[in-house]
Amino acid sequence: MTRILKVLLRWLLILGFSGLLLIAAAAGVAYWLVSPRLPSVAVLKDYHMQVPLRVLTADGKLIATFGETRRIPVSIDQVPDMLKHAVLSAEDADFYSHPGIDWRGITRAGFHVLASGGNKSQGGSTITQQVARNFFLSPEKLYSRKLIEMFIALRIEGELSKDQILELYLNKMFLGHRSYGVAAAAEYYYGKQLNQLTVAQCAAIASTFQLPSAVNPLTNTPRLIARRNWVLGQMLEHKYINQAQYQEAINAPDDAAPHEQPIQVDAPYLAEMARLQALDRLGNDALTEGYVVKTTLVSTRQEAAVAAVRDGLSIYDHRHGWRGPEAHAELPPGASNADYSSMLSSYTDVAGMTPGLVIASSASEASVYLPNHQTIQLNLAAMDWARPYINESRMGAAPKAVNEVLKPGDIIRVIHDDKGNWQLTQIPKAQAALVSLDPENGAIQSLVGGFNFQRSKFNRAVMAARQPGSSFKPFIYSAAFERGFTAASIINDAPLALPDPSQPNGLWTPSNDDDKFAGPMRLREALIESKNLVSVRLLDAIGVRYARDYVTRFGFPLDALPNNLSMALGTASVSPLSMARGYAVFANGGYLVTPYFINEIDDRDGKPVYVANPARACADCQARLLQNSPPAPPPASMLTNGVATANASTAPAPASSVGMAGETALPADAHNGEAAPVLAPHVIDIRNDYLITSLMKDVITSPMGTGYAAKVLNRPDLAGKTGSTNDHRDAWFVGFNGDLATAVWFGFDDFSPLGKGEFGAKAALPIWIDYMGDALKGLPMKDLAMPPGITTVQINRQSGLPTSSDDPDAMSEIFKVEDVDRLRNQAAQQQQQNQDQQQANDIF
Questions:
Q1: Would you call 410 helix, strand, or coil by DSSP?
Q2: pLDDT 10s digits, 450-497
Q3: DSSP label at 256?
């Protein structure tokens, strides 16, 4: 019997050894067959995870992220031990001891396949195998794929350390809701960084690796908690936590909630511009390689711009009455809060305006249910503005009872006022845009393309082609001052009729906004009071052809400028950005800068791949002083970079073209080292600039000025001009000092009239005042010093000619020095003519 057992044992050993040899031989043959197809795992040493594009303000605040995935790469040193232990307990407890393949797990999975008749649900993959599958293979459950996965895992173990493998795993794996990697999952599910996670939260994230789409902290909570508690049990078994920690974590609720990466500055229009410009420069890698775009936007100024535009639109909207509820729903009998929430489910906050459902109303108050399950009361004072809208120029009587305005079932908007009280409001129908530049180099400091990006992605700040009205007049005056006209030149403000075959009576008869005429007046007065007929006569005197050529010096392409006298009234097609650019020439001493909005682009490691070197005015730079060239038209290339033309579409662009950068450009790249300063072209004489600026300062400081309301800012360095068009379809204010050139446009996208009396001074100027007041707060005065070649002369306010200081009608005016002698000769000639006329009168 003993001999038989020895023989059997010997044969078993022989068979076992032979089996092992056969398995080894089979594995060797298999490796020989598949080895040529195995990828090189060396690439994992420098593998770049897909990381979204981030767009920041100049002061480092987040504007937007762009990309299909949420991912925040972290090093293994940044992952707390508790989270590592949770993941190891859930996925591969022997990770640090096996060679990349867990034979026991593979055997267990093999028996499961045999016992279940081919069910491959139990994979037996180690963390290293999962890394191999996720980086190099498909998720197909094939025996051949499993074999290749094992060979790749062995190669990975030979190339990388265990910590390197675990770091790849913790950053690569999908964990539900577009979150890839543990850091992104921690931020999205719990709004925390990794070192802030509790034991229960670590276990919940670790539980997500197995079935991330079906079981995660936000999906299928019962299964998630069951899986989490199992992971906690494994952590306790492996002594990663003690009994007290285990008990506390087991009892912890699932407190996950969606946490989008917090947007710190509201600038979606500029963020879209940055996305498109990054794609243009970097290609499709821009959205996946972790680039960071640092814009020129200043967060405090952007916040001020957004607030000013929204406040201005709401004030205008309230001024024109209540258009009724946003929608109406029939309230079922005995409706509950769940019913109310369901009715509001498709409505979201818009620019701080909260949707609400009126559930009861009486003469004295209305009860309004909000999405946060709160019920508020609105009294008559909360809607005292809500006179019924009839049209843009007419409203009904003021409401005398709350239930005249609100009925049960109305879906409305409410907002907090400055004191924290709820007020009735409504989403404005009108739109507005604001863009503000640094006149020194064209850097965009703030940009608002409309009331709300989610409701309308059309970027009016750069893509709108609207008529600027009287805000265009300073360019015409500048052209006239180069043709010998002065601030004291007399032009007749009187009716005018010119041939125009397009008009029904064959005549074009322009008029002033008030349909009144002041007679002969000085050009300074005419610009202050925005006299249209003076501008038309002035343009006629200097010639349309000359004026069009001259106005291109401010960055406007020739085909955007009408080839007729209507150009004097601002009938060109321009965007707010192009107007801000044109006024920046006056703000910086006569130099044409190109607007831009990207300062720097960094790669995922923080190394710059692009640094802007924009053209600068740099009036006092040594290079500028050495240049000493006279003003001249800018290169043609500076006039064709996306500027709206006279034939441009004036309707909102389709979604595919939303976010176009308008007349901006990416400046020269200087990231490879120091670059010589780029000088902006000198386009107008600084003396011309000083004279026009002095006129626009008076638009604000003179009680007769259309911009007089801006005097409230108490800044004598401000200058600007209002603009209004026929039927009040567009309202503008464009103004500047030495620090900022800012344009505000106000109107309807469909060119509907804004309503009676809605001039630039009423609709657009308040927005400009609110913005500039905040943007310039605490900054010293900054404007042009009087340049050489300008002198002050006493003139007669009636004739505009030099006079003596004892003239009772004498006043001070500034001139170019070469104009003074000519004007004195005219004054002498006029005086002689007056004497001759007096002598002739004396004879008779």
A1: strand
A2: 999 999 999 999 999 999 999 999 999 999 999 999 999 999 999 998
A3: -
Distance between CA atoms of 386 and 397, rounded to whole angstroms?
9
326 vs 355: CA distance, rounded Å? 9
Per the CB < 8 A criterion, the answer to whether 749 and 431 are in contact is yes
Which amino acid is located at 85 in the chain?
A: H
Tokens of 810: 């004498």
Q: Which amino acid is at 604?
A: R
DSSP 8-state code for residue 568: G
Tokens describing residue 298: 């200043």
- For position 650, what pLDDT does the model report? 35
Q: Which residues are catalytic?
A: 91, 470
Indicate the burial class of 766 (C-beta count within 10 angstroms; 0-12, 13-18, 19 or more).
buried
C-beta separation of 38 from 151 below 8 A: yes
* Residues paired with 425 in a beta bridge: 413
> Residue ranges of the chain with pLDDT lower than 50?
24, 26-27, 29-33, 111-115, 117-122, 641-659
Contact 189, 205 (CB under 8 A): yes
Which strand (E) or helix (H) includes residue 338? Answer: helix 337-344
pTM of the complete model: 0.86
State how far the Cα of 67 lies from the Cα of 284, in Å rounded to an integer: 10
- Taking CA atoms, 451 is separated from 139, 353, 533, 744, 747, in Å, by 46, 12, 35, 13, 11
Q: Which of 322, 552, 486 is nearest to 816 (CA)?
A: 486
Angle subtended at Cα 363 by Cα 360 and Cα 364, rounded to the nearest 5 degrees: 85
Main-chain dihedrals φ then ψ at residue 577, nearest 5 degrees: -65, -40
Q: What is d(CA 582, CA 678) in angstroms, rounded to the nearest whole number?
A: 19
- Compute the distance between CA of residue 236 and CA of residue 200 in angstroms, rounded to an integer: 12
Supply the angle between the helices 765-775 and 299-319 in degrees, to the nearest 10.
Answer: 150
DSSP per position, 78-89: GS-HHHHHHHHH
CB atoms within 10 A of CB 797: 17
- Longest Cα separation, the chain: 167
Question: What is residue 601's predicted lDDT score, i.e. its pLDDT?
Answer: 96
Q: Are 406 and 369 in contact (CB under 8 A)?
A: no
177 contacts: CB under 8 Å, gap ≥ 6: 70, 188, 189, 216, 218, 219, 258
pLDDT for residue 215:
86
Parallel, antiparallel, or unpaired for β 444-448 and 292-295? unpaired
> HSE (CB half, 13 Å, CA atoms) of 605?
4
- The single-letter DSSP state of residue 604 is T
**CB distance 129 to 150 below 8 Å:** yes
Task: Record the tokens describing residue 224, joined without a space.
Answer: 């998630």
Query: Amino acid letter at 201?
Result: Q
* Neighbour count for residue 589 (Cβ, 10 Å): 24
Token pair of 213, please? Answer: 């789409």
Question: Which tokens is 192 given?
Answer: 């925390």
The stretches of 730-785 forming alpha helices (DSSP H) are 760-763, 765-775
For residues 408 and 403, give the distance between their C-alpha atoms in angstroms, rounded to a whole number.
9
| DSSP type of residue 744 | E
> Under DSSP, is residue 456 helix (H, G, I), strand (E, B) or coil?
coil
Q: Give the model confidence (pLDDT) of 114-138 as tens digits.
A: 445 444 444 568 888 887 787 776 6
810, 801 in Cβ contact below 8 A?
Answer: no
| Contact call for residues 430 and 317 (beta carbons, < 8 A) | yes
Q: State residue 503 phi and psi, 5-degree precision.
A: -85, 150
| Structural tokens at position 140 | 């197909």
Q: Quick one: DSSP state of residue 387? A: P
How far apart are alpha carbons 723 and 765 in whole angstroms?
Answer: 10
Rounded Cα gap, residues 80 and 195, in angstroms: 6
**φ, ψ for residue 101, nearest 5 deg:** -130, 130
CA distances from 11 to 2, 3, 6, 18, 368 (A): 14, 12, 9, 10, 88
Q: What is the pLDDT at residue 812? A: 95
